[in-house]
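Why DUF1646 domain-containing protein? Reviewers of the renewal asked for a concrete example.
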Amino acid sequence: MMTGLIILLLLVFFLPFTVKTVERNLEIFIFIMGVTATLISGTFSRPLLLQALKDPIKITIAVVIAGLFFKVFKDQIEAAIHMMLNKLSFSIFIAVTIVLLGLLSSIITAIIAALILVLIIDSLPLDRKEMVRFAVIGCFSIGLGAALTPIGEPLSTITISKLQGDFFLLFRLIALYVVPGIIFLSIYAAIIIKPAKIIKVRRNEDKERLEDILGRAIKIYFFVMGLTFLGTGFEPLIEAYLIHLSPYILYWINIISAVLDNATLAAAEISPSMEIESIKAVLLGLLVSGGMLLPGNIPNIISAGKLYITSREWARFGIPLGFGMLIIYFFTILVENVILG
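Here is what the prediction returned.
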């Protein structure tokens, strides 16, 4: 069983970047891999099926509503963004957007923050390369910020529940890491993202049809459903090999949250008996890794689906950025532990 799950995990990691058919049909691929994982591990059950059918409902509804909202008010939204651009320089506008969405995501949820990010990106004068960069950096920021409260994303909800903490527990625990990370991302975005000299027409600049909106929502539904199956299917592997390891080893192993639901990993790895520094290490590893690949976070899925970003495009920029942040956070934690003794 374990051998089968390891092989399946490697397939989930590498096939989207090596097989174009898989890349073009990533949602169905993740769904098939998720069901396969539950069959291999023997975790498929009626309650799991019901849970997998239920989990994507809220995000799917949010995506449909946002799509309709954008379809109706696209011109007004673009006008408001252009008005702000006339008052702020392009770089400052980019930086402010990254900071605000990152911090507000803990209040308005990661889903809504991602939908706002898409609306902004779609209204800016960006060529494709800059659009992808903005989306990836924005989703890193949202993924970090949403963890500060239990309403931001499932990972924070599960973590606070397991630790039996209050509403501001995670804010007290990781805000000193998360907020500087968001500020760094905003400055980085302001430096590297430049407006296009010649605007290239993107597919989503055309007036969207209702069929396009519904089609994208259906894809996201099956994508999230597949992630639910994946998380449960790999639980035996996690319990057998991961949960007893040093938190510093888990920090790096949690790179697998780039393709698995980080809330599931948090539920398996975090325990009230763990040292505070260990909990920090595990959480930061999960949060940063979630931005590296397209399936790693709900904001990634929403942004890529709306902006038609491929797995390869996301990984080309997301992996180097994620590894850089992981290294910085890792040495920050080590230094802090040495100073605190």
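The chain has a mean pLDDT of 86. This is the kind of structural detail the renewal will allow us to pursue systematically.
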